[in-house]
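User: My collaborator sent over this chain with a note saying "see what the structure looks like." That's all I know about it. Can you take a look?
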Amino acid sequence: MTATDPALTALAQGWCALSLLHGRIEAHIERVLQARHDLSVREYSLLDVLSRQHTGEGGHLQMKQVADAVVLSQSATTRLVTRLEDRGLLERYLCPTDRRGIYTDVTEAGLKLLEEARPTNDTALREALDEAAKNPELAPLVRVVETLKALVPA
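Assistant: Without extra context I'll predict from the sequence alone. Here is the result:
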């Protein structure tokens, strides 16, 4: 295969279209969440991921797992946790069985904000997908995204 191989060119074009779709969706959701709830997309995602934890065996995520879930480095995730902790939306505490481990939980204020922001996030996502579907290059990707939602457990 060479750099001018049609298969590679098509692959690169597909990747560019996917990247464009992601960027547009994230930018739209970011604007709406910031304006209505003073939350970034990453902050919302972190609150959402941490709100799904539970007590008991395997119920809490390690920071690496949280970082992977919100698609950030561990250091960026730690900074994000600190910002939300400073706002009273998260709290950290030592793991009761391993004093080296630190858990992060969403506070009541964080759960309330998440509950208020979730419909905004969902509506903004729908708006961004509807707008992207008007673009012939992005429409096939929008259809794929819309079919994927059925595969994700509730």
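A starting point for your reply to your collaborator: Helices lie at 6-37, 41-51, 63-70, 74-86, 108-133, 139-148.
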